[in-house]
Amino acid sequence: MGRRANEIAAEIEALVTAGELAPGAGLPPLRDLALDLGVNPNTVAAAYRVLRERGVIETAGRRGSRVLPRPALTPRDYAPLDILPGVRDLADGNPDARLLPDPGPALARAGRGPDPQAGRYGGTDLDPGLLALARHSFAADGLPADAIGIASGALDAQERIFQAWLRPGDAVAVEDPGWGSLFDLLPALGLRLQPMPVDDDGPTVAGLRQALDAGVRAVVLTARAQNPTGAALGEQRATALRALLAERPDVLLVEDDHGHGIVDGPYHTLCVGPAAASGPDGDRRPQPTVRHWAVVRSVAKSLGPDLRIAVIAGDRDTVDRVRGRQRLGAGWVSHLLQRTAAALWADYDPAPGVASYRLRRDALVDALAARGVEAHGRSGLCVWVPVPDETAAVTGLMQRGWAVSPGARFRLETAPGMRLTVSTLDLEEIPRLADDVAALLRRRTDRADAVRGV
Length: 454
Prior knowledge:
By secondary structure, this protein is of the alpha/beta class. It has helices at residues 5-17, 30-37, 41-53, 104-110, 128-140, 154-165, 180-188, 205-213, 235-246, 316-328, 335-347, 351-370, 390-399, 430-452, and strands at residues 57-59, 65-67, 88-89, 148-151, 171-176, 192-199, 202-203, 218-221, 252-257, 272-277, 284-288, 293-298, 310-314, 382-386, 402-403, 405-406, 417-421.
């Protein structure tokens, strides 16, 4: 190994990546490793600190340092299932390509942008057309739209927001089950995950209260189309959660609205409460629940994942920090993509997609319920089915011609389950799928009863 902290950290990380240090494997005490390498113990301590901040290891006092059960080196979304030929893929989580607009004409027009300074060094970072659409969209949902930013997708936006306010070691409350990519990103930033249980109405009141009492510095949630359960905040749940957050105004609140444009119904945000009269003219403006907040609205599901565009509304300090840091790195999001997204968004009619996804999702949930199978899918592209054994369920469905996602990709402490993507599911396929799921789970139940002697 090298003799500098960054060299030691890099070599340990390479061993983890190669599988030579398995998840859960213990690392040598820092004084022992320092002696073996002939370096100062402070050098090894610095290397271990780098690895903790990278989300590779954890340190548990006298129990020493160990490789995390899931080190943040390979995102779980990039560990694809081995889907056999002829198996129907209900695992990928993508929108239905048949419902996405053709970007060709909009992209061609975007290449002839009217502003000669746009997309040049020193030019503006925000496209006026996309900015206007974003402002109107947020304002329509009762969100302040004075401060707007644009990022390369929802996860890029969230990473920049976390880096604006959080530091390694801070705890972040996340939905459980929730978005696997977020579970990977946070440890990679040196942040700790604090799970919040989720039901059909979103994060539970008890779950948020427990997270806040545990001292989390940030809360991340999905108000609708929650991945993987399809949960959606209702007015009553939103009111209760806002009341808890209002007691902790220093907590950063981030909402991921990737469901914009693919679900209907009102958007119940936690970031702001009911409008109250303010200002000399007595106008009514929404009141922020916490000091620092952001709503990230992605176009990936409605207009296409490859656009890599998400707009951000938030308090002025948060948006300014995000945009300032962005200028120091990437500089700006491509104006070609911004203008393309703006053109598609301006012409986009969400009704056909909303109706199609709702029809498929409801049909599957109803078909499973008719066969005695519990399933969840209030909104979005997915249906979540609790199962006693994920491996058996996923393998059994694969043998029957269906590929679904194991729940382990989306959960921390919650019970096992599996996620079924309905976005491309045809209605005539649903009865056979429901029959196969029900038969598989019934067989598992019968076997368990036999073992118990019931």
